[in-house]
Recover the amino acids of this structure.
């Protein structure tokens, strides 16, 4: 009996010592290296499966995975597909509860749909645990526009931003200097400049933007629409279609007129054709994603790389506004390795690794990135990007989210873009586009049981 008690006491002391050692180790996460030691001990060399879109941020993260695996022991298995198809693949995997993937790369326009369907989890418990999310991660350093605009549903953080973008203007400084012009500060000035430069010189057009039928046209129009109204597609409070309201119609008329100052085939342009037209020196101005600046600064891609200025989007009748879009990392509800997935997200999205990520070609989402002198020297668009994000914040101050919380926002945007494209081509008038588009929006939402 005494021997049994002695053995029991010995076992208890051993377990206590092991537990104490584990707690002590768990508590020391003050550096990436010390945190990684704990991760390595508990992960036991697991492999996590990642489903990502083809994107500069994905390429930047992949360059950092060898070091991550060396430090944590967690291996990575990647599946990369086009950004145009990733949502459908993720929906298919989550609907079937395949459990194949541990991390999703999620478009900010998809988070409401994914979270409402319980396909991705609320990350609050992970963010609130100081051992799972050490101080060097620094969640508050992520720009509020991106935290709230592309990663939260209500007050629930469901992804961590990895590639934030807005929409701003790039313009030909040589042409503007030659004709003594300044970048536009109002939408009226923007249109006036587009008309001025359109045909001013042989082979030069006023502006290039996305305008291809459907979502491409819809997203480009949206990037200027909030300067005309709080409710371009749906009412921001009731979520009922508002495409035929006076403000929405005014924005459509403006956008259609603006597109007619571009190249003759602009109605077929995606972001690639619009950027190419500007980089080939064919247009005086371009309004599109801040994330595409790396193309503009590439001497091998852009013929006018050293003749480019950047400016925030102009104000309109409704005031200041700017787009908020981008990508984040989320954890599927059926993921088999949720904690290891979070370890990957913490490492890759942390403030501590932010500079390395951006130097690898990643897209900034953190305030500290814009304050870093080396990064700012490499990217001349940073001041205009910050001014653009300030305008996005002013839209939020109006009580409006750029990405409407309706789970059908991509479908609705595509419907609007289809009718606006018809107006650009001249098949219908802007008034007819809004009337016909409004009816289809209502029919779509009624069919979904949302109206």
């Amino acid at each position: 009996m005494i021997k049994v008690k002695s053995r029991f006491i010995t076992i208890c002391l051993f377990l206590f010592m092991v537990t104490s050692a584990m707690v002590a180790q768990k508590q020391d996460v003050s550096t990436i290296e010390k945190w990684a030691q704990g991760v390595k001990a508990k992960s036991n060399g697991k492999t996590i499966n990642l489903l990502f879109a083809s994107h500069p941020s994905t390429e930047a993260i992949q360059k950092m995975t060898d070091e991550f695996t060396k430090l944590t022991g967690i291996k990575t298995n990647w599946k990369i597909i086009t950004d145009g198809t990733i949502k459908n693949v993720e929906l298919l995997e989550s609907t079937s509860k395949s459990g194949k993937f541990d991390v999703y790369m999620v478009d900010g326009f998809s988070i409401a749909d994914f979270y409402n369907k319980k396909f991705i989890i609320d990350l609050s418990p992970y963010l609130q645990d100081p051992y799972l999310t050490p101080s060097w991660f620094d969640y508050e350093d992520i720009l509020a526009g991106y935290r709230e605009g592309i990663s939260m549903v209500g007050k629930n953080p469901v992804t961590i931003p990895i590639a934030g973008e807005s929409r701003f203007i790039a313009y030909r400084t040589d042409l503007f200097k030659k004709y003594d012009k300044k970048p536009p500060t109002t939408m009226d000035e923007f249109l006036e400049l587009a008309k001025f430069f359109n045909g001013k010189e042989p082979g030069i057009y006023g502006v290039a933007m996305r305008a291809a039928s459907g979502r491409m046209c819809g997203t480009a129009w949206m990037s200027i629409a909030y300067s005309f109204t709080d409710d371009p597609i749906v009412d921001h409070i009731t979520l009922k279609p508002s495409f035929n309201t006076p403000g929405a119609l005014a924005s459509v008329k403006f956008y259609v007129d603006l597109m007619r100052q571009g190249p003759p085939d602009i109605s077929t342009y995606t972001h690639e054709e619009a950027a190419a037209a500007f980089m080939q020196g064919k247009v005086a101005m371009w309004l599109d994603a801040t994330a595409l600046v790396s193309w503009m600064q590439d001497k091998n891609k852009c013929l006018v790389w050293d003749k480019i200025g950047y400016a925030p989007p102009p104000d309109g009748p409704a005031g200041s506004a700017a787009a908020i879009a981008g990508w984040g990392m989320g954890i599927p509800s059926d993921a088999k390795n949720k904690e290891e997935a979070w370890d990957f997200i913490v490492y890759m999205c942390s403030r501590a690794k932010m500079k390395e990520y951006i130097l690898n070609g990643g897209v900034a989402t953190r305030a500290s990135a814009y304050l870093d002198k080396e990064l700012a020297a490499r990217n001349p668009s940073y001041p205009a990007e910050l001014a653009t994000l300030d305008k996005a914040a002013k839209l939020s101050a109006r009580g409006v989210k750029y990405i409407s919380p309706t789970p059908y926002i991509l479908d609705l945007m595509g419907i609007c873009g289809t009718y606006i494209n018809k107006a650009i081509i001249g098949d219908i008038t802007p008034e007819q586009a809004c009337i016909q588009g409004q009816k289809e929006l209502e029919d779509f939402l009624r069919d979904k049981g949302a109206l």
Q: What stands out?
A: DSSP finds 21 helices and eleven strands in the chain. The first helix runs from residue 2 to 27. The mean pLDDT is 93.
